[in-house]
């Protein structure tokens, strides 16, 4: 919607009456943020519900997935992931451009570690579930990290802004930001679909019972 407003009305009017802040997918504390958090928390609930119904050797992994999804939802609201950006940027001696979102460096490393930790778990799952979760994770990471870096490059690297600069918007930026969120949504929604199917197979009851 912000991209459409930018295209129709121009960059100066797309924030009319708080419209941008309310629906801007690149902003925090608004409708898209809460929608993303709700999806992640529901996925966490489903994963937790599967845990007591699956094989014993899989239960701890399902609980770990649930906790991970819960933390991702909390981060979506609180934007904790932005905290390391300044530190990492200063560590590399660059506070501008792509380094504005330097959190993707530790985030990328964390993603690799998580992937390694769940290899054995995925091997024990049905092929449709294991491959589906890999695709879902790939969609989410592509949106959250790759397109995040692309949008940062468009808005900051080309303008030379640093942490104290004023963020500006362009149609290109808006479209990349929309793509970023769409890939994240697709990854989480696919995850929910896969987990619900697995839940039906193991007769899981969606809830917080342990």
The biggest beta sheet reads: none
* Computed CA radius of gyration, to the nearest angstrom: 19 Å
Specify the helix fraction band: 55-70%
In round numbers, the mean pLDDT is 80
Give the low-confidence spans: 5-10, 160-165
Order of helices and strands: HHHHHHHHH
In whole angstroms, how far apart are the ends? 41 Å
User: What structural category characterises the helix and strand content?
Assistant: mainly alpha
How many beta strands in the DSSP annotation?
0
Shape by Cα distribution: globular
Strand content: under 5%
| SS element count, helices | 9
3D structure, described in words:
The protein has 210 residues and is an all-alpha fold. It has a domain at 82-201. It has helices at 2-9, 19-23, 31-50, 56-78, 84-91, 104-117, 119-123, 127-157, 171-201. Helix 1 packs antiparallel against helix 9 and helix 3 packs antiparallel against helix 4 (56-78). The radius of gyration is 19 Å and the shape is globular. The model is unreliable at 5-10 and 160-165 (pLDDT under 50).
